[in-house]
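1st attempt posting a full record on here, be nice pls
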Amino acid sequence: MSFIHVSSPHTSDALSQAIMECFLEWNINNKIFHMRCCAHIINLVVQVGFSMIANAIENVTPFGQLLLKKYKSLDFLLGNDNEWNMASDVCENLKLFYQVSEKFPGTKYLMSRIFFPFICDMKLLLLSWKVSNNSVIKATASTMLIKFEKYWDVIHNVMSLAIILDPRYKLKLINYFFPKLYGEEARSEIMLIRNIITEFFEEYKKKHDDKRGASWKRQCATNVSEAWGSTLSKSTWEVDFDNMLSEDDGFEKLSWMII
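the predicted structure (as tokens):
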């Protein structure tokens, strides 16, 4: 990432100090994170759920096994109505986790437009479990959410940015999912995402302007003042950025991407 000269002696303190100075210069504090494997996180979340529910539904035995043996009393072996209802609910809801794991094989790399909605659906499912009338499912959801939130807190901002930059979605998915996920805090979360992407845009614009440098100013100064050229440049960038985020279907997405 960088080549720097470190004066002798090359002690551990000197090297660590040089590295720290680079980090401070790059201004990347709290901007670098570990991107975990989604399939692995899903597996951990599901395993937590199974381990907590297993004892509650252990009497729900497959009928195939029951028919192979003779029992004096099936009432003793078969689960009660509550156990069967809970097993049915768990099986139905875990379908989503199975579908997600099928979508995220290790040999394929999905685009954010497919990845992000599934992740949001998983969190919505866990949130619905958390308010279940069944105490076992409710406790299970709380534990699963702890595992899931460790992943969500890290990736949801990055995934949101990727979705916004997709001209087919822009802010549509964010505006749809965030109110369901955050309730009254949705507006502040959406504004946070907008501020982050605006910050990235300003940083990119600054680098682009620095590269163009004096040549751009000379071109603008041919017929108009340098001040007007600077204003024109800024307004053009801002209009493009606003158009990119707008919901106007008349915006030429493909032409904008090619440019």
